[in-house]
Amino acid sequence: MRVVSKRLVQTGWGKWMFFGLVSLLFASPGLVQASSKVDGLQSLNVAASSHGGSARVVQARVLIDAPPSLVWETLTDYRNIKNTLPGYEKSTVLQSRGATKLLDLAMRVAAFLPSYKYQVLAKEDEGNYHLQLSRVSGDFKSLSASYKLSPQNNGSKTLLVYRLDIDPGFNAPGAQGLIKSSSEKTLRALENCVEQEARKSLIGQR
């Protein structure tokens, strides 16, 4: 990996060339198998697919043992994303206009890859517990993500339906496995964080 110049990696195309080289080295059946094990868990189901060229789609359903209001509060705590979700190195709110926010993010998909920096527009529909994120600039050719929360078990639990549409702009071997694995880790971390807060709240009420 030392043969890849630092200057090349810092460019958008260079990052994805680097991504392709490293993904080819690290892509293996073990990575896909590890991801499929998570699919079997009752609370989390994740599926990834290719939609032509370098475009990828991840769809997931997560059952969280906490009310939708608490899940929503965690999801929209943008300034704390880097402390809540794995891989995020920066999460700054650049503009806030009511239910619309402009976020400046930096994340690392894997330890052996460079950071990816981009800005997204967050549109909140709190009444329907729906959050939509859309890339406006930076790395990735295109990126949009949606989170839809539905109350379960008389409102004590939440079904989170997640969809990620992402096009890195470079059709790298192993990209689908890495994107799926990253999504699984993010959703599992969100689930754990919210459920810990829910347990703290219950203890405080006793």
What's the structural blueprint in terms of helices and strands?
Blueprint: H1 6-10, H2 12-26, H3 29-39, E1 44-50, E2 56-64, H4 68-75, H5 81-84, E3 88-97, E4 100-107, E5 116-125, E6 130-138, E7 142-152, E8 157-167, H6 175-205
Antiparallel strand pairs: 1-2, 2-8, 3-4, 4-5, 5-6, 6-7, 7-8
Describe what this molecule looks like in 3D.
The protein is an alpha+beta fold and 206 residues long. The chain has six helices and eight strands. It has helices at residues 6-10, 12-26, 29-39, 68-75, 81-84, 175-205; strands spanning 44-50, 56-64, 88-97, 100-107, 116-125, 130-138, 142-152, 157-167. An eight-stranded antiparallel β-sheet has the order 1-2-8-7-6-5-4-3. Helix 3 runs parallel beside helix 6 and helix 4 crosses helix 6. The model is unreliable at 1-14 and 16-41 (pLDDT under 50).
Give structural attributes:
single chain; 206 residues; alpha+beta; 8-stranded antiparallel β-sheet; globular
